[in-house]
């Protein structure tokens, strides 16, 4: 195998491994942010539990609003 071919192979392997590592790191980071958002929402809901127990949710697919009873 020529020197140029070895360099090209090595470069492509390093690039591929770097991309795989980046994608895994990015997915982990996004999952962590989602988890923190859920915990924040739960904490916010518990701190405002003295308010009304029903709320209105908007369904963007149908364009209608529905009342939801939360206990």
UniProtKB/TrEMBL annotation:
Pfam families assigned: PET117 (PF15786)
InterPro entries assigned: Pet117
Gene Ontology cellular-component annotations: mitochondrion
Biased composition (Polar residues): 48-71
Region spans: Disordered: 41-71
Keyword Transit peptide annotated: yes
Keyword terms, alphabetized: Mitochondrion, Transit peptide
Annotated localization: Mitochondrion
Homology family: Belongs to the PET117 family.
PANTHER family the UniProt entry points to: PROTEIN PET117 HOMOLOG, MITOCHONDRIAL
Name under which the protein is recorded: Uncharacterized protein
Species annotation: Bugula neritina
